[in-house]
Amino acid sequence: MKIDSVFYSYKRDSVQMKLLATVSEFPIVKIFAINSLGIIARNSSQYKKSIELHTEALKLSESIADKESIISSLNLIGVTYRRLDNVRLALDFHKQALTLAEKMPEKTEGILRSTAVSLNSIGNIYLTLKQYQLAQQQFEKSLRIEKELDNKLGLAINYQNLGIINEAQNELDAALGNYSTSLEYNKAINSKLGRIICNNSIAQILIKMNKPKEGLKLILPSIREAEELGDKFYITMALINSGWAYSILKEYDNAEKNLEKGLKMAIANQFNSSTSEAYSHLAFLYESKGDYPKALKNLKNKQEFSEKILNEENLHYTAELIVKYDNEKKENQIALLEKENELVKYRLGENQKFMIFAAILIGLIAGILIIWYRQYQLRNEKQVLMLEQQMMRSQMNPHFLFNSLNSIKLYIINNEKENAVYYLNKFSKLIRTILSNSREKEISLKEELNTMELYVNIESIRFSEKINFEINVAEGIDVEVIKIPSLILQPFIENSIWHGLSNIEGDKKLSINVTSQKNGFIKFEIIDNGIGREKAQEIKEKKVSKQNSVGLKLTKERLENFAKNTNSNIFMDFEDLYDENQKSIGTKAIIILPIK
């Protein structure tokens, strides 16, 4: 590969390569020069000379036991035989090259390139024999290697060959796509020969798509370019394709002239595939002209040359070789698997004790984790129970009970029997509801709102003026289905009454607004028209009791525990309300919970 990069600019110059092959003292350099001369001979259709030169390079490679050079030389001989449609010999040389390459322990860049060439050439042989599935498999393997190497020439060749498969199976759009991709790679490496090949292939597709004029625009310049290179193979191909296009356009004189010229060149150079194509298009030409005897004669000639390529002996030999090669590959794989199996058995024997120990250790760890998780669950349950108990004590605090009973007592003393009975009933119902709800972790929203209404009615006894209390539930909220923690709103309402409403004269207003939020949340707004948090704090600092702040703290913890079960978060905040003169007109408590 290093030699190729050093002499790349001279490898198409026959004079320089002859000089290099003569004067160089290094066998590897001589091999490179001789193989380059063989490629030059092949591209100028001197196939006998090409085979002789590559064979000379092969012998020299074997004499120095250079595997990379041996593989490269075998592939080059195979390519030349493929040009001559000698399927058996071409396949023999490429299979030898591929077998050697696959046995190489170290896959150098040179070995990988030779492997890709072998696969590509074998694919071309299968393509000639119309074994399209086998051909595609080889091209795709070769393409993967060329992509890994980022070899644009190799990529151009493989996309061209995939296009030929598409064309043979009448997948014209796919063929055009692959030929166009190949052309782009050839332009990138400035390959004149590659552009000639691609333009001819694209022209063939255009002719098959009934666009012969567009096809001729590509073919005619490629004839001149191929003549400049001296490559008779592609001159022949271009002449035959142009004759075919002229036949469709009914320009019979130009068609006959180009087809006869292409046929003569194909026969002289033993291009059996091209000879068969030329006879086929001549048959079409004479049929179009109404000259049926000549059409039939050319059709018979086509059949004769097709049989030279696709005879039973070639097909049988190819099938045998494929089976032989695959069997050899399978035997090698079986031997390798047997060795691997022995190694695996040894490792299993060595690792058996370790596996048993590991299993015991995993079992112990699993047991510890289960115990730890159970303890974690129990701690959580204990924490929840403690919170519920603390909340219960907070809700049933002595101040509330004393104040409520004292107010009812005053009604009795003042001989206000109806009020006393009314509020006593309310009070007993509230106590019964609180006790009942305390047994449940969650209750319906309807039960919670009813309980809050009872609670506000009892608390309002302390005021000479009744608290104007209202509950507003937005449409679409099913209060009987939605579940929330029991008595969760009570501390907020208690806070509004004790710190807000109890310190104002006149109208006392308290409301609960319930609305639904996006993503399955529900929002509570508890609004009062009390003195506001700033004045309430001033009053609170003069007092000793911190009961209400404890209640709110417990409530927040209960809400967070509730939200854990739904993998969501809660939101709790307070807002001060002001009028247009920035005078405090109350407080709003906001609670947002996940719907359950």
Describe this entry's structure for a reader:
The chain is an alpha+beta fold. It has helices spanning about 1-5, 15-25, 25-45, 45-65, 65-85, 85-105, 110-130, 130-150, 150-170, 170-190, 190-210, 210-230, 230-250, 250-270, 270-290, 290-310, 310-395, 400-415, 415-435, 445-460, 490-500, 535-540, 545-565, and strands at about 440-445, 465-475, 485, 510-515, 520-530, 570-580, 585-595. Among the domains are: about 220-310, Tetratricopeptide repeat domain (Serine Threonine Protein Phosphatase 5, Tetratricopeptide repeat), CATH 1.25.40.10; about 340-395; about 395-595, Histidine kinase-like ATPase, C-terminal domain (Heat Shock Protein 90). It is built from 23 helices and seven strands. The strands form two sheets. It has a five-stranded mixed sheet with strand order 2-4-5-7-6, covered by helices on one side. It has a two-stranded antiparallel sheet with strand order 1-3. Mean pLDDT is about 80; it is low at about 390-395.
Given helix and strand content, the structural type is alpha+beta
Kindly provide the radius of gyration, computed on alpha-carbon positions and rounded to a whole number of angstroms: 48 Å
For the termini, the CA-CA separation is: 72 Å
Number of helices: 23
The unreliable regions are 391-396
**Helical proportion, percent range:** over 70%
In spatial order, strands of the major sheet run: 2-4-5-7-6
Task: Assign the CATH architecture of the domain at 396-594.
Answer: 2-Layer Sandwich
CATH topology of the domain at 396-594: Heat Shock Protein 90
Major β-sheet annotation = 5 strands, mixed
What sort of overall outline do the alpha carbons produce when their principal axes are compared? elongated
Order of helices and strands: HHHHHHHHHHHHHHHHHHHEHEEHEEHHEE
Question: How many runs of DSSP E, i.e. beta strands?
Answer: 7
